[in-house]
Amino acid sequence: LRTPVSNIKGYTETLLDGAMDDKANAADFLKIVQSNSERLIKLIDELLDLSGIESGKMKLSVKPARLPGVVRQVLSDMSKAARENNVKIVNDISDAIPDVMADTGRIAQVISNLVDNAIKYNKDNGEVRVSARTDKGFLVVEIADTGIGIPEDDKARIFERFYRVDKARSQEMGGTGLGLSIVKHIIQAHGGDVIVESVLGEGSKFSFTLPLAV
Fold first, then answer.
1. Between 170 and which of 64, 108, 129, 175 could a Cys-Cys bridge form, CB atoms 3.0 to 4.6 Å apart?
2. Tens digits of residue pLDDT in 80-134
3. Closest by Cα among 4, 93, 88, 82 to 42
4. Spatial separation of the C-alpha atoms in residues 59 and 82, rounded to whole Å
5. What is the model's pLDDT at position 167?
6. Alpha-carbon separation of residue 38 from 1, 52, 71, 138, 176 (angstroms)
7. What is the pLDDT of residue 57?
């Protein structure tokens, strides 16, 4: 919280001290203020989200749900970010997959978070592939990328609150270190689990499970 607030305060003071008269720099300073404001809003929203989840106040509307449409909507929403990062998104989820028991709003949040990470930490001209398969009464959803990968020592901690593998890059990308913790809590509340497989320098694959609708 302190970092974006300090940046907003510092650049606002600079503008008030006379930088507003320098049109070129003033515009750049205002973009920095805007960027830090957006980061602050995201952080507060995720803190409130996580607080509600951990205190047991998160209410899920779990019912039989079709996942392909949810995935298509999320990937459509993420298409602009993918283009800006020169990353290709591939949707391998078939319309024929069985229904799951899920709160579609929360599962959209999970998929959005994982795809967002897969885009941000990918390589130039990289790929994000979303797929699904059934396994012993569960649907396994997989989000795989061709990105920078995760060091072996960090894998066990990436779902902890505020834990970031690459702190400098995460901060630059607007990361809060809360997204994966929220993902884990939401999936566990559905009776599923989240796992990660990764090879440093080659990419990562995040998988989560949801119970099949009976």
1. 175
2. 999 999 999 999 999 999 999 999 999 999 999 999 999 999 999 999 999 999 9
3. 4
4. 31
5. 55
6. 12, 21, 25, 37, 12
7. 73
Residue type present at position 121: Y
Q: What is the pLDDT of residue 195?
A: 94
Residue 82 neighbours by CB distance under 10 Å: 20
Could you give the CA distance from residue 63 to residue 105 in angstroms, rounded to a whole number? 11
DSSP one-letter string for the chain: -HHHHHHHHHHHHHHHTTGGGSHHHHHHHHHHHHHHHHHHHHHHHHHHHHHHHHTT-PPP--EEE-HHHHHHHHHHHHHHHHHHTTEEEEE---TTSPPEEE-HHHHHHHHHHHHHHHHHTS-TTEEEEEEEEEETTEEEEEEEE-S----GGGGGGTTSTT--SSHHHHHHTT--S-HHHHHHHHHHHTT--EEEEEETTTEEEEEEEEEBP-
Q: Closest Cα to residue 113, out of 210, 182, 54?
A: 182
CA dihedral (152, 158, 163, 165) positive or negative: positive
